[in-house]
Design a protein that fits this description.
Blueprint: H1 10-18, E1 38-42, H2 49-65, E2 69-73, H3 80-87, E3 95-100, H4 101-110, H5 118-121, E4 122-138, H6 146-155, E5 161-164, H7 170-182, E6 187-190, H8 194-203, E7 208-212, H9 213-221, E8 225-230, E9 256-264, H10 269-283, H11 286-294, E10 298-299, H12 304-325
Parallel strand pairs: 1-2, 1-3, 5-6, 5-7
Antiparallel strand pairs: 3-9, 4-7, 4-8, 4-9, 4-10
Helix pairs in contact: 2-9, 4-12
């Protein structure tokens, strides 16, 4: 019997959480915040999905509210270095970070002696978007469908290579789970971020790219990357012609990732409320929705309480998934 891989509660859970957005805002916004530039740490290199979405938020907050939001890339160790820098910052709301599932709920189970806990040392501020993972290949590749990949991997185990943004990311683990679902062996090539992985996939140095949709969207639209499948339970609204892995014969396969703004634990509630209110206003505008959709992601606002609940639930859930994968990073 084929195993079923349902990794997140995905769209249904997100929708349920979103219903409570307005009800949980119990603290008045901070009238005098911000009075100086806000630093938004991006814990990955420029060009990846986290970077793209973070800069959208920073730019739109600047345009709409006349805030100065400085985007600051601090990559390394699967995003955990940038997160750790904000954990150590003063809890004033002037140092925040665009986190994602990889570094907030998976990284803590992968990295030995990580000096912070996402549920204790950080405050959930605002959920921004979620997206499936995509399996793609160069437009010049011999692989036209996911079935072609599976056939090649079964004929010669380990011969098909795939690049990911790094060891232990949700994207790497999506590739690992696909291998298990299909009963094949691929060769994983980790990179330091999505952009270098994509460059090697375009050059044909790796056979496949496993990536967030926002990271790959521009090259897909340019016709340089051929998307083979998305990992979510439903097709991406941004790529409606691309089948899901479940539709490709692996029933129940569902892996998504998400992005959201976090602040150090102890950040005043009224500052958190101000940030959440202003980011949620942006997510409700047609312009911001269109910009996020153009990157292959789905915008979704949440209250700080609901985003915190999502973080806590998935942090617990992914412990077992990481342990089952056998992936460890020293």
């Amino acid at each position: 019997m084929r195993r079923t891989f349902t990794i997140t509660t995905a769209v249904a859970a997100y929708a349920a959480l979103a219903l409570g957005n307005a009800a949980h805002a119990q603290t008045a916004p901070a009238a005098n915040y911000p009075t100086k530039p806000v630093r938004l740490v991006i814990p990955f290199p420029p060009g990846g999905g986290t970077d793209i979405l973070a800069r959208l938020v920073a730019n739109e907050l600047g345009k709409t509210n006349k805030w100065t939001v400085v985007a600051d890339n601090k990559p390394g160790a699967g995003g955990t270095i940038g997160i750790g820098e904000v954990v150590k910052a003063q809890p004033t709301g002037y140092d925040i970070v665009m986190g994602q599932k990889d570094n907030l709920v998976i990284g803590p189970w992968l990295y030995k002696n990580l000096p912070w806990n996402p549920t204790k040392d950080l405050t959930a501020v605002a959920h921004v978007a979620y997206t499936p993972v995509i399996i793609a290949t160069s437009a010049n590749s011999k692989y036209k469908t996911l079935a072609d990949v599976v056939a090649a991997a079964k004929a010669n185990p380990g011969s098909v290579t795939y690049g990911s943004p790094g060891n232990g990311t949700s994207i790497h683990l999506a590739g690992d789970l696909f291998e298990k679902a299909a009963g094949i062996k691929l060769s994983h090539v980790p990179y330091k971020g999505s952009n270098p992985a994509m460059m090697d996939a375009l050059a044909g140095n790796v056979d496949l790219l496993v990536s967030s949709v926002p990271s790959a969207m521009a090259q897909i639209q340019a016709g340089k990357l051929r998307p083979l499948a998305v990992t979510s339970a439903k097709r991406s609204s941004s790529l409606p012609d691309v089948p899901t892995i479940a539709e490709s014969g692996y029933k129940g396969f569902d892996v998504s990732t998400w992005y959201g703004v976090m602040a150090p634990a102890g950040t005043p509630a009224n500052v958190v409320t101000t940030l959440n209110t202003e980011i949620n206003k942006l997510l409700a505008t047609p312009e911001m929705k269109a910009a996020i959709h153009a990157q292959g992601a789905e915008p979704l606002a949440m209250s700080p309480a609901d985003f915190g609940k999502l973080l806590s639930t998935e942090y617990t859930q992914w412990k077992g998934i990481v342990e089952a994968s056998g992936v460890k990073i020293e």
